[in-house]
Design brief:
alpha+beta; five-stranded antiparallel β-sheet; 5 helices; 11 strands
């Protein structure tokens, strides 16, 4: 089967085009660091995947109506679907674009590589989130930057003090990428998260 025989192919061959979700497919987005691990776990079960290096996001195409945003409830993972009161667009690159572009097909469209089964995808993303971000914090936390409570706190550092127990610094998903990285604190946080995950 040639790429032209697929149920859908990107219409634009020159540049990224903003296409409406809910017309040919819905989509699931995750931070690329989490998507890297999820793709390892999915292996051959992944369909086509778009990676956007400008925003650090990776997108899987899924069947329309198979998921709702509320059905996932995963940290930093978003379901893009048509909403009753507004449209949602996804930037789709030409089918031939690969890693030489900032937005490209990380897993190209092809026979047997179109939509990803949501049952496989949600399991892989849950495991990837635990592996990369560590166990989910209990309850809402304040973001270090905006000082607003977030339902999706991302642990960004462990503050050390000689006489006081260590405190975890949290960020909302928007500000997590901007936290000034302390390599020692980051390594310690990951070790603790991994150890906590193994001992649960």
């Amino acid at each position: 089967m040639s790429i032209e025989a697929l149920p859908w192919t990107p219409p634009n061959t020159e540049d990224v085009e903003a296409l409406p979700v809910g017309t040919w497919w819905d989509a699931v987005s995750a931070p690329t660091s989490v998507a890297d691990r999820a793709l390892e776990l999915l292996g051959r079960d992944s369909g086509a995947v778009i990676q956007d290096d400008t925003y650090g996001k990776t997108y899987w195409l899924i069947a329309i109506g198979t998921s709702t945003p509320r059905s996932w409830r995963l940290r930093q993972v978003r379901v893009l679907t048509e909403l009753a009161d507004e449209g949602t667009l996804l930037g789709v690159p030409p089918a031939s674009w690969r890693a030489e572009h900032r937005t490209y097909w990380r897993i190209p469209l092809g026979p047997g590589r179109y939509l990803t089964d949501t049952h496989h995808l949600i399991r892989a993303l849950r495991q990837a989130l635990d592996d990369i971000l560590g166990p989910a914090p209990d309850g809402r936390q304040l973001c270090y930057h905006c000082q607003l409570p977030t339902n999706e706190p991302v642990p960004v550092a462990i503050e050390h003090s000689g006489s006081v127990a260590s405190a975890t610094v949290y960020a909302c998903p928007t500000h997590a990428r901007d936290y000034p990285r302390d390599a020692i604190a980051q390594t310690a946080a990951m070790r603790r998260a991994l150890h906590h995950g193994r001992s649960r």
